[in-house]
Protein: Cell growth regulator with RING finger domain protein 1
Amino acid sequence: MGHGRSLQWMTRRRAVLIKVRWCAISKWFGLEVPVILRNSEEIEFNTRVSKKEMKQVKNPFGLAITNPASASVTNGIALTPDCIEESILTCYWGCDVQELYEALQKHVYVSRISTPQALEDAIYSKYVYREQHFVKKNNKEEKYCQLPSDAKIEDFGIVPRSQYPLVALLTLADEDSQGLYDIISMVTVIHIPDKKYKLSCRILYQYVLLAQGQFHDLKQLFMSANNNTPSLSNSSPGEQSTDRHLLEKAGLAESEVEQYEENSKDCVVCQNGKVNWVLLPCRHTCLCDGCVKYFQQCPMCRQFVHEYFSLCNQKEQDKETQKSEGTVTS
Ligand SMILES: [Zn+2]
Ligand SMILES: [Zn+2]
Structure:
């Protein structure tokens, strides 16, 4: 991803991939609220940054590749599901690309894909081999997926391909729990290397499918977090001074004080506030409520911020404050 270079100024921090349990989805009817950014001296920037209206949706499913470097078509792959309900993991080896995307369209227009059978029907069983695992609730037990040796498949041909090496479907095991979530299933498209195509193993796409028929491409947020093993070895002095310059421009260099707080989600600028803002398009999630207004460019990668949204809605925060203070307004 190439984020490494620009991260060095954060003395005791590193960017980590954190897959959030919920995903934020633009409200379908949502209007964007334009916001003009100002710095502390009230100097007006010309650029307008749109604040996105988002809706929080709880995702019962999670799926990660345990050790991507060791995965191959011939040796198999270890997957770690992480689900908050009992779920079924169905893996389709050599799944037809065209049929998969048509199946997602069917989910929108024809019938919802909430069970393995529904996907099976939607893709007309166009895959090479299928295996199924039961996933216990809140149990990150590794599942090993492997083509049987008698399938005699060593590769999925040269690119462009008509088959994905592996498509993993997560669905809720208990139909009663299906009504509890907006998200009814998750489709993960995984590339696994073979002798014809050695691109390293990775998740290509992850789609969450909603009960109302939409589906969304799940994106990971790059969240700043404390790193207790300080490492400055890779940073060049030039990079550090640029970063310092950036902080000085924002009038915040003084707050470059090292802190050792338990909170692993504190802001990369003031190093104190709770990280709450996702910057788009880079998806760095590194600023608190107080600092977000100082930045037109992401402090981690320098990309211009086109849009942003908060993880914890301000209104909700206010509501909670009111609740805890016992003042009810209606
Ligand atoms: Zn801050
Ligand atoms: Zn960024």
Summary: Residues 97-109 form the longest helix (13 residues). The CA atoms of residues 5 and 166 lie 33 Å apart.
